[in-house]
Amino acid sequence: MNGNEVVTKCCICGRVKTDRGWQYTFHVNEPNSVYSHGFCSSCYDVEIMKAKMRLAVPAMAVMR
């Protein structure tokens, strides 16, 4: 990729993936940086739980 550094950033909390895990860091937008977005492990777990709850709520309403 033309020597560009790929920086993975959580799309929810903004933490950056480093070799020491997901951390809040001040990362300057350098011209050689390319950003990729995803979910850190904490935000992923919360979003999965929210999705499961959205599926469960309509099912519980039908049971009444």
Key traits:
64 residues, alpha+beta, two-stranded parallel sheet, 1 helix, 28% strand, elongated
The largest sheet has its strands arranged as 1-4
The average pLDDT score comes to 84
For the CA atoms, what is the radius of gyration? Answer: 17 Å
State which percent range the strand residues make up: 25-35%
Alpha-beta content class: alpha+beta
Question: Would you mind describing this structure in some detail?
Answer:
With about 60 residues, the protein is α+β, with helices and mostly antiparallel strands. The chain has one domain. The protein is about 35% helix and about 30% strand. It is built from 1 helix and 4 strands, in the order ββββα. It has one helix spanning about 40-64; strands spanning about 5-10, 15-20, 20-25, 35-40. It has a two-stranded parallel ribbon. The chain has a two-stranded antiparallel sheet with strand order 2-3. It is elongated.
Summarize the SSE layout with pairings:
Blueprint: E1 5-10, E2 16-18, E3 21-23, E4 33-38, H1 41-63
Parallel strand pairs: 1-4
Antiparallel strand pairs: 2-3
